[in-house]
Amino acid sequence: MAAFHHSNPTDRDIRRVLQKLLIMLSLGIICVALFYFLAGCCESDISENSISHRPASEFILSGWYHDINGKLYKDFVMVQDEDGYPGAGEGSTIIPFLETNNSDKDWKATRRLPQALIIGVKKGGTRALLEFLRLHPDIRALGSEPHFFDRHYARGLDWYRSMMPKALDGQVVVEKTPRYFVTVETPGRVHSMSRDVKLIVVVRDPVTRAISDYTQIISKTPHIPAFETLAFKNRTNGEIDSLWSPLWIGLYAQHLERWLAWFPRAQIHLVSGEGLISDPAGELGKVQDFLGLQRIVTDKHFYFNKTKGFPCLKKPEGSSKPHCLGKTKGRTHISIDPEVIRRLREFYRPHNQRFYQMTGQNFGWQ
Questions:
Q1: Residue among 122, 123, 166, 198 flagged as catalytic
Q2: Which of 15, 107, 360, 362 falls 20 to 30 Å from 54 in CA-CA distance?
């Protein structure tokens, strides 16, 4: 009897120790799992949502949703470019792309170099094209302009890749920097990155484009000389100053010639800036074909804003208002002396004809 009472406490002690060990092991497993879960969340937040070196002049417009294939997407528009979006500026700092689509496929997405570039032209409609393309679920587009090939090339391709949005297999990564089209060194640099990259150029009547360019310039620097003064080397004899940037950019044939030295014509798609206003769905359809994508962005996505004189996107899912581009889009141009416009049209006529011959497209500019 005494032996029985002697062994019973020992059995109870062993059971208590085992129970404690089991509880401690369970707690340990829970703590480890919780730690990895929190660490993963923090890493995701830091890598995807952090924005470094962000000046106060940059803005992010949120609340822009659209529904594609039964899924709700939310876009953040990086408002920073030389095409006139609010916050644009020559000295602006690059913002990494802000990831917003947290689908269960995100873990398979990677950052890669772009397969398509919108290389020009300034004030041609590049911002509109980019925003319209962003509706497509198979396009991942960088909202800001990285200016890699013209300003930041020394930073290297790894830096450039880090600027890109994450993309799944089958998605096309696109970036837009209109200055590429007119920068001498850019075609060779782009070719060094990829000889297969697809190039998109939005072109517009060069006279109208020049006036739009000047209108944007004086909105920032209102005390510069008049357009009529800057457009001429000598107004008495009518000699045009073709090196003045707003006019020089419109020498499309001259700039395209450099690109054709590196890339075949079939790899360069030209978008009509006028067509992007009058028939955005038609122009978007051709761009989607060029990129090898299904025509998902169609006329059902657009309506014409009579006040702005510009197409806008119809009210997307989850948003209370339709989506139009910034106030700098559709801005009223300054009035120019008709005689100056006539002389500019005469100046550009042979350049436009050469451009039509090089491209096999007649844009019908006066």
A1: 123
A2: 107
